[in-house]
Amino acid sequence: MSEYDSLLSKIETRQAVVGIVGLGYVGLPLAIAFVEAGFHVLGTDVDPQVVDGLMAGKSHIGDVSSDSVGSAVDGGFLSATTDFARLSQVDAVVICVPTPLSKTEDPDLSYVMQATESVAGVLRKGQLVVLESTTYPGTTRDLVTPALEASGLEVGVDFFVAFSPERVDPANPTWRIGNTPKIVGGLTENCHRLAVALYVDVIDQVIEVSSPEVGE
Questions:
Q1: Dihedral sign (CA 79, 96, 23, 174)
Q2: What's the pLDDT tens digit per position in 74-111?
């Protein structure tokens, strides 16, 4: 069985473990959405206070209740860590780190590249990596993918890459993670299909686009 077929089967049967990099106002609601869809989730963050709080069942994000975090942790569906090496255990990695504007009003990609390098260090065959951080066209193809391929694995065959821009409006009572349309674009056809399969049972409406650049 190919890496693609194996991962697709895991996603469709909810046996895939989802890793979320960055547990802020984008990552934590997404983590809970995956849990509610029946996936096991491993969240990673550089802030030990965030991780310790979540493992104690306490939410630091207004859009996510502590009750939902506590239930997810107690049920064994959500765990959090500062140890990025544990991303080797997951099947899909979703990068949700900040991209603040630099002094020249361009997105600062330092957090994205740090997260990518952490993933690249433990990347294994059969993993899907999705970038959600807001950025400019070309980031996924020209920066993230080469950093991941430095592992020696081949994109589209050994591992898979896609872009799906985060669309979160904090404190909006109407538009939440689940009912906000989600754009998804993969680097190759297999990358695209896997990313769509990952989101389709979590988001009400998935909008497929032809490439990561279109999504960006």
A1: negative
A2: 999 999 999 999 999 999 999 999 888 777 777 789 99
